[in-house]
Amino acid sequence: MMESIQARTKLANGVEMPFFGLGVYQADEGKEVVDAVKVALKAGYRSIDTASFYKNEEGVGQAIRESNVPREELFVTTKVWNDEQGYDETLAAFERSRKRLGLDVIDLYLIHWPMKGKYLDTWRALETLYKEEKVRAIGVSNFNVHHLEAVMEISNINPMVDQVEFHPFLTQAPLREFCRQHEIQVEAWRPLTKGVIFTHPVVQSLAQSYGKTPAQIVLRWNLQHRVVTIPKSVRAERIRENADIFDFQLCEEDMGKLDALNENRRLGQDPDSFSR
Ligand SMILES: NC(=O)C1=CN([C@@H]2O[C@H](COP(=O)(O)OP(=O)(O)OC[C@H]3O[C@@H](n4cnc5c(N)ncnc54)[C@H](OP(=O)(O)O)[C@@H]3O)[C@@H](O)[C@H]2O)C=CC1
Ligand SMILES: O=C1CO[C@H](CO)[C@@H](O)[C@@H]1O
């Protein structure tokens, strides 16, 4: 049973990554993101998920510096965006992200989407960054099984993480099984469906029976599947609410009720629209 906000999963290379973190997509650069990250760190969050695309890496870095949390406790993820891909372009994009964040080492660097004709060269750049110890772990995002296989075919280093859309409407069972077999940690994006799922009767009824909010029910379901989760909020009360999920456990039957909501329904883009 996962009992702490600071519970960590061991990645294939032994690096420990928190199961729980803060996503900052659409948190505005400036006060909004700085305040959100500070509130989260104060509430015990130790992992922050940003991206070059989110245009708030500077604010994330500022909040980290202004908090009193030792750097070694923190786990910072950022991603190379689609128009930055390719070998040399990715090395340059990484330096820009690193500078904006104000960090020497990034904990996890991800390929944001599998861009056609680019993602294998991009992966080679991530390998270089890893070998140069500029990143503690490397991974991908929005990779389906065939994208992962393509990377694994050309590389000695497997992606350590695959960050994908994951929630009860899209449970990604075959992809999760593939990742389990190859020691790739699955991480959920849009875990709260941006609230779409909150009014679902199954979620409502579980929330009532556990005395928890719909958001907490869905996030706990992520963790019990051993999927890393990074809900986004910029509101202090919700940042704390989303983290208050370590004092209860969904029973197997209730996990099954949430699993049964799967409709293979994507709220975001299909990775195969980037490359098949
Ligand atoms: N790799 C990728 O391609 C992608 C990665 N991501 C990552 O995943 C993170 C999470 O996904 P995201 O798309 O942000 O969506 P989420 O599913 O985390 O939902 C975030 C939304 O839900 C609201 N919210 C948060 N907590 C609560 C709550 N307890 N009750 C009610 N509403 C709530 C937030 O509003 P408010 O802020 O006002 O509280 C926000 O509008 C992103 O921030 C990003 O880091 C996301 C999409 C794609
Ligand atoms: O990280 C991201 C945030 O959400 C966007 C819209 O769904 C995605 O395209 C992007 O990958």
Automatic annotation (TrEMBL):
Question: What keywords are assigned to this protein?
Answer: NADP, Oxidoreductase
| Residues at the site labelled Lowers pKa of active site Tyr | 79
Domain NADP-dependent oxidoreductase, first and last residues per copy = 31-263
Q: Which Gene3D superfamilies match?
A: NADP-dependent oxidoreductase domain
Q: Where is the active site?
A: 54
* Keyword Oxidoreductase belongs to the record: yes
Please give the superkingdom of this protein's source. Answer: Bacteria
Q: Where does substrate bind?
A: 112
* UniProt GO molecular function: oxidoreductase activity, acting on the CH-OH group of donors, NAD or NADP as acceptor
Per the similarity annotation, which family is this? Belongs to the aldo/keto reductase family.
From the Swiss-Prot or TrEMBL record, give the protein name: Aldo/keto reductase
